[in-house]
Every structure is written in C-alpha cells, then in structure tokens.
Amino acid sequence: MAETGSNFPCNNEEAFDRIADALKTTGYIILADCIPFALCEALREQSVLGADELKRAGVGRGQAYNLDGLIRTDGIRWLCPDSPAEIAFLAWMELLRLGLNRRLFLGLFDYESHFAVYDTGAFYRKHLDAFQGLPNRVLSTVCYLNPYWMPDDCGELLIYSPHDDTLMETVSPDLATMVIFLSAVFPHEVAVTHRKRYSIAGWFRGRE
Fold first, then answer.
1. Nearest-CA neighbor of 179 among 155, 152, 151, 201?
2. Model confidence pTM above 0.85
3. Domain with residues 12-56+71-205, CATH architecture
C-alpha cells in the first residue's frame, strides 16, 4: 500500500521551514530521502506499467511547441489521481504548496507533474522551465525513482548559475531525492544517461 502524505519524511513544519529558508536564500534545495522508498518504488512501477502511454517530450508551448531531438529525448506521461501511489504523491505536493504559500506568499495556485523516462543515451539540454513572458511556473520539482544509481550511470541533473555558465550543482538521480528550485531563475540540464532513468518532473504554478 502506498504511503499517505502524512508519512513523508519531509512532511512537518520544521521541514517546510527548511525548504522555505533555502528558497529565500539560495533559490533551490536538494533533499535526500525526501520521499518514502516504498512510495518511490510504487511510482516507478506505475511509470513502467504505463510505458505504452509515454509520449515523446517536446519543447515550447502553444504554437511554439515542437519535437526537437537535439534538445530533449525523454518520454513523458502526466500524473493523474488514478492510482494509490500517484494520489499519495500529489497529496504531499499539495501540503507542500500550502506550506510554502504560508511562509513565502508565492501565490502558488496548483501543481502539474509528469513521469519522465530517459532511455539509455537520452538527455535534456540546458534550459529554463518558465516560459518567456508567462509567470505561471514558479517552482520546479524533480523527484527521482532510481535505486542503486552508480556514478558511471551518469544522467545527473546539472544546475547552473543564473548569471553565467558556472555549474553550481551536480545531482545524482538517486531514489527518493527531490530537488526544488525557482523555475525562472536556474538554467539546468539532464546529462546523457547510461542507464534507464525514471523521475517525476513537476511545477508549482501561479495564476496566468
């Protein structure tokens, strides 16, 4: 049975304080063992079972949307509350949304997320998550679902300085790790992976 939101390691006021403080000071936070392992495994199983529903990911929005294999080569499936694992994950993200709104007054309105599956050799080049001229994506989240990830597997999340090309963080996509960062501030990319890689990418949005 999937864990409920109340059983999350980071589901308490002190944890929400720590996340809010990091977003205020550095604009991002990397949380190890943030999600219960059992839930991560259930979510990865959902992603595997839904492999036939994966769609090739594109870039841009609206009329600017296109499929560009030189920029990204992952497959995605949007989360929806139709399984206990997805319900539990989305319930915790709702608690996080409310907790961050109380502390930071960000006006976070809702949350959208999708499974992202990278086959061997897949990547996502350097980019920003927020669409130009549209302030709807405020905070980005990435939750990793990969047990026993090794350095030679690569596929790290690379987070760059908003001011230049300086690499600030290299995040291994280890099981139960979550990264939260300001969507419009930090360019980032997914390095070429040498092993099939599972994650959930999501965005807290403001009103458009």
1. 201
2. yes
3. Sandwich (2.60)
